[in-house]
Amino acid sequence: MIYFDHAATTAVKPQVLEAMLPYFSENYGNASSIYTIGQQSRAAVEAAREQVASALSCLPREVYFTAGGSESDNWAIKGAAFANRKKGNHIITSCIEHHAVLHTCQYLEKQGFEVTYLPVNEYGEVSVEDVKNAIREDTILITIMFANNEIGTIQPISEIGKIAAEHKILFHTDAVQAVGAVPINVKEMGIDMLSLSAHKFGGPKGIGALYIRGGVRVDNLVHGGAQERNKRAGTENLAGIVGLGKAIELATADITTKSEKIAAMRDYIMNGILTKIPYTRLNGHPTNRLCGNVNISFEFIEGEGMLLLLDMNGIAASSGSACTSGSLDPSHVLLAIGLPHGIAHGSLRISLGEENTMEDADRLLEILPGIIDRLRQMSPLYEEVERGE
Ligand SMILES: *Cc1c(COP(=O)(O)O)cnc(C)c1O
Q: For 118-141, how does the pLDDT look when each residue is reduced to its tens digit (9 = 90+)?
């Protein structure tokens, strides 16, 4: 099988699994207990916190473990909204965020908050000018994703961070797709809160973290015990935390070399598809995009059919985000960059990872034209176009 769906999830790296294994049935102590195996667990949790902090260039005590990207997004946004309710009730976000952000904002609207959903340009970029113009007296939070999970576009995070700081407004970014692909320094970039998720960069599922800059007040999302310095209740997911620490250390080491290698494969696939197959268009920015993201629309095609035929040829890819496949609505991201419904339906996302090779890329380029041709032969619209009607 050739796996081209790293934006949906990744395999746990062998070194990560190896680091985690002792923490299931040997070193299983509760990190909050005072006896030796409890204290060993505590040390492992704190070592992982340092690994995350060093990957983001923040302090260990600014890192809080959560159950993944969705929880981190929910916590950052609801936590900041409820903690700052007296200051104001306006939030700025973009219309291409992950549903973990969009649905949280929609929930907050029901609670009386006002949300501005900024548009994006044809490449999926948020305009810094638009952010500036959307700021009001009562704006308490700006939440803009670092990089988009469907089309890979990277946002002007440092510029937005600067504007947020000038206006003393909190700035959160969903960096779930960016960690391990783009170098991140939360201090230099003016980020107050950042969400990440281990399973997107070689760690296990169900574990993530939220960076909260020291001094930033956010209400708790999960209430209960005193874990995570009283901010996030629940017995620590020990093995998961150890796995997250190891995975982020590996993912952020030699990040420039690795991402350049992956970007070369990305460009090879992108150019290969766009030149070999007619009636195609690239979604997202041609260069300002995640090193592993290719997203291309094929006219006269249904995405689902394309995915099934690719799967029959041993290639796993996606037609949008995993959450939207299975539903008939076209992706909100593709609609936001101006694709008509029909074309948005025929989109293919190839997301590359470290273990992909140029042979994988060649195999895709060998298989795909035939698949597209076969599907187009079944399209009455395509037939008309071919006959020149
Ligand atoms: C995958 C993803 C999430 C959700 O993370 P989970 O750990 O799966 O909850 C949030 N935002 C983005 C951009 C993602 O790609």
A: 999 999 999 999 999 999 999 999
